[in-house]
Amino acid sequence: MDRDAPTTLARGAADPSTGPGADDLLAALAALRATDLPVHGGRTMAYVYDAGLGGLDELAARAQETVAGVNGLDMTAFPSVVTLENAVVARAAALLGGTPRTAGTFTSGGTESCLLAVLTAREHARRTRGVTAPEIVLPDTAHAAFHKAAHLFGLRVVSVPAGADFRVRAADMAAALTPDTALVVASAPSYAHGVVDPVAGIAAAAAARGVLCHVDACIGGWYLGHLRLAEDVPAPPPFDLSVPGVTSLSVDLHKYGYTPKGASVLLFRDAELRRHGWFAHASWPGYPVVNATLQGTKPAGPLAGAWAVLERIGTGGYLELSRRVHLAVRQLTDGIGRIDGLAVLGEPDAALVAVAGDDPRVDPFVVADEMRLRGWYLQPQPAHAGSPANVHLTVTAAVADPARIAELLEELAAATDRARELGPPTVDPGLLELAAALDPDALTPDEAALALQAAGVGPDGALPARMAPVLAVLQALPAPLTERLLPEVVSRLYSR
């Protein structure tokens, strides 16, 4: 077949009557989706967030369809986006310690919210303190989005090691501050282990030096904010804008708000601080441009879908969902503690649980393979610094049922037994010796292909059914080489 010939999915026609029928096209999409992980039912414990409530998908789809042609680029032409965004931001601010001065921006997701927080801090430091070589102080458990932001916007990363409990110490963060620090970041919680950093101490240290402090509550803010409204569970640690010294906070709605992707809110202490991150340009012959986000054209669908779901569930609904998830996490962590060969890392403050092996015969990557072969997806996390290799479980409301948690624990115990019988994957010492001699910056395509082949990745990017051997190799390689090879894996999946 001609490689450049259009595929069935790419064909179309100027006259719709001669193109594929709607039913055929939808059937083709359904066939493609059949190879994906399920997004409902609670068995995919990463990437997707399921409230387990009927009717939300239909409501969100109808809301998005209502504004399908609206472009949020120009809010004067489409004032509906202003009304919807003000309502969504106000709800987030009311939940997360905002004041009447609090301002916010609706973004496409957590990464964009974090990027904008860093960009705003860089500009604020330059304009108010004359900082020309900005730095960002991060716990080494901070999300990769902040490293991406530093790379894109030219900040130097100062990484502070977390303690044995996977929380960074406020004193260590304070010691890392310099006159060039533009932003300090704390996590609520950190993704890998679900623990909340000591936000109050970190924010106080930043404020004492006149430095902005951002709280990454992307994955946990909506959950923790509602959980503290429950009267029968312990309150989470303080983390939001009510904490003195916190100047911005990001919270994703498409996570524990259970709205369609992508929907996130970036909150600022006040509108003046928010303006440092806006872009405006009138020095060209076209229309005056002003952007509060990295996007120009902005689909209004995610905003409308988020607004509809937030209104439908409401504060009381989210409180109950958060309470159910909290109880499920307690049941899950207690149950894992009784499985021979497994151990929970740290003491999770939120709905994220990292599970490592405490028996050298039990490899968590093999456990993940065994679970996936039986319909459960647990996210592998390679070893880093003081955190051993583990599997990550995101507990959503869809899995927050005692019977479902009991089923998960039973499957996990059986998978652990099978993993013990199979044993850990082995890594060829010769491969590691060869890898140590490679220069990631000078790696040729042929060398990259050989390295990936040795790791078990096919020439077309095809991955094996069992990923433990691949992950074991990538984990054992020097980090710069792994970071060089990962884009090669992804690029092989795309033929264009």
From TrEMBL:
GO terms for molecular function: aromatic-L-amino-acid decarboxylase activity; pyridoxal phosphate binding. It comes from the Bacteria. SUPFAM superfamilies: PLP-dependent transferases. The modification N6-(pyridoxal phosphate)lysine is found at residue 255. One of its GO terms (biological process) is carboxylic acid metabolic process. Keywords: Lyase, Pyridoxal phosphate. InterPro entries: GrpII_AminoAcid_Decarb, PyrdxlP-dep_de-COase, PyrdxlP-dep_Trfase, PyrdxlP-dep_Trfase_major, PyrdxlP-dep_Trfase_small. The keyword Lyase applies. Its cofactor is pyridoxal 5'-phosphate. Belongs to the group II decarboxylase family. Sphingosine-1-phosphate lyase subfamily. This is Glutamate or tyrosine decarboxylase. The lineage of its organism: Bacteria, Bacillati, Actinomycetota, Actinomycetes, Kitasatosporales.
